[in-house]
Amino acid sequence: MSAVLGAERPQVVSHVQQALSYTVFDCKWVPRSARLLCLGSAARGTGVLQLYELNGARLQLLREIEKPKPIKCGTFGATSLQQRYLATGDFDGNLNIWNLEAPEIPVYSVKGHKEIINSIDGVGGLGIGEGAPEIVTGSRDGTVKVWDPRQNDIPVANMESVQGESKRDCWTVAFGNAYNLEERVVCAGYDNGDIKLFDLKTMSLRWETNIKNGVCSVEFDRKDINMNKLVATSLEGKFHVFDMRTQHPTKGFAYVSEKAQKSTIWQVRHLPQNRDIFMTSGGSGSLHLWKYEYPAQRSKKDSEGCEMGVAGSLSLLQNVTLSTQPISSLDWSPDKTGLCVCGAYDQTVRVLIVTKLNKI
Amino acid sequence: MPVWLREHSWRQSPTAVYLSLPLRGARATPANIFCGEQYLKVSIPPFLFEAVLYAPIDDTNSTAKIGNGNIFFTLYKKEPALWDSLTLANADKEKLQYLRENAVLKAQEKAKEETEAKKITKQEHKKYALEATMKLEEAERKRIEALKEKERQKVAEELELWKNQQKDGDKYKSIQKKEELPQEIQPLKERKNEKMNKTLIPNEGSSKTRLKSTRGCIIELYFVILLSSKPEKSLASFFISSALTLFIGHGSCSIFAQKLKEEQLPAPRAPATIKVNFTPRVFPTALRESRVAEEEEWLHKQAEARRIINSDLSELEDLKEEEKNPDWLKDKGNKMFAMGDYLGAVNAYNLAVRLNNKLPLLYLNRAACHLKLRNLHKAIEDSSKALELLTPPVPDNENARVKAHVRRGTAFCQLELYTEGEALDYEAALKIDPRNKIIEKDAEKIRHLIQGTMQSS
Hints:
heterodimer; A: Methylamine Dehydrogenase, Chain H; four-stranded antiparallel beta sheet; about 0% helix; B: alpha+beta; Immunoglobulin-like; Serine Threonine Protein Phosphatase 5, Tetratricopeptide repeat; four-stranded mixed beta sheet; about 10% strand; flat; Dynein axonemal assembly factor 10 (chain A)
């Protein structure tokens, strides 16, 4: 780990803090705006969607929408920039796509899973990447399903366990490798430590591994490029960074792992403006900002002459403790470097600014 | 008996008394000197000097100087007056005693007070030190806070600026959506005038609106960039001209570009399923790195336990609970033997032995069965095994051993191996239990048989 000079280190400044009257499970920036969305579950067991606008030193509530079932996760990833529809997964296994201007009736709705949808991701929208817009959902019923908003009721891909075998909860999903019209990859993390990489072009399992602890969050550094890096965080304070450029036939992908905190690492999010910087949020209410440094040679030949990847190194740029409760959701603003929002289980949502990121 | 020091000399002034006490070679330390208000004592065993003073003195300020084989006292009088003599001359014993005790008490009290005072001063010093450090830390903290505040404010300002840009961009989008085409020109023109401080060619306005009627986010974006740029004249003009050219250039194809883009989106994939297998695991709970060591230990212990049972688990799965108990099986075997079902008894004993091969009674009883079944060799084997297990030879297993020997002997005899039968077993049996008539009789019989065969051969 290389040390960064004290004066030049990025600082995490807490800009606004907003107390909420419900448990917030996910918070997202509305693309191309200074507005943010908070999704969660109210005490009476209904879902809540709140739209806030950043106004000076406070958040101004623009809209509050209530839904029958608590909402666990949401994404803007699969919509175009004009429409900006929100796709959400709720506690009942329903996938809905909402138009926030007219949120009474969803634009698309399907009961995708039998149990809670733990994680959702979208690709192909927002002017990023190419190809069809698709949404992937991972659920506690052990299946990962990929949906196309133009096709009703039936998922375009379904990753489920072999008949009769036990199934494990899927805790997180992420899209990647969407650099042209055909290629696409879905990475899923499960509660027993399995990470599986599914290739949607060939509809097959491309790689799997087990990191010995439940996988809380996976993310590719960029969805729309040839897969470069994958960060997988897990329980007991560990996270792994896989170098996805070189796949060895038996050893898989090279990785570097770091044990950052004693508690679960709930989320990892890469900075949209710099794909080597990412932030991890922990169960002790802390945020760590990391930088990945590439090795001198990204691949080398092993004894049999097969190419295998070489993992780089990680350095901790900054760390800050904001809360006593886990910070369960984190989102960088795609429009302003360093602006991010995080939601914690102490029913607050905080807008943070990370300074000096352009100097890294 | 202490040696009194009496060779003291003294002189006085109105306020003080100076007393010199030669020590006759003894070494004095401050501990040897005891001074009260009206009482002075120097005790260096075996020497002793004691003086009940004429009048009270101020014992806190008085000093004693030790040196040169001499102690020099400087005693400050409480009341400036001239003393007739150093000590109270005609004091009676009781008064002297009283004064002495008083002095001692007073000295003790003083000592106590002094320690108290010291404690208090110490505490105050500590408090002061603590406060000082607190102040320093507070100052440090404030400095850091101030830095952070500054940073925060700077960042907040930047954010405001950015946000305003965003707002304007959004406002334009909403305006476009709601209002009609001709109405759009007015607010736009006003805005432009505000920001750019320039008059525009009317043509520009119209061409822009025409372009705007086509839907294209590209155009909206250009607009946002245009209007949010800093109002510098040259820069602005450059922007406008470049934007215009872009607009006009793209204007015709933007409509088509949009449509093409929609067509270019590939069709939804054909639905397919991928089957996955999860990492196999013995435990129903998920894998957690911190518990791996515990789990390994548990599995190891389980394996050990299974080995102790000493049998093939798969066969025993069909049995009921009681059938897995060797004692129960032994009883069953005994019952069957009593009923005459020797084969059944043997089976029962076999199973019992598989479950627990350390019970000698099982072998013993099985030997009996074999005898009845005339499996003589097996009988011999079993009795031998029983005897093995019955070591050490103690009175407790006498009975069993006798039986074992008898059975083995019988087997030998039936095999016509009389010598072994007789020599080994019946003798042994007799040794264990010499009072058993049956054995004696049998032994006799066999001996006769042996002699008979020997004679005949």
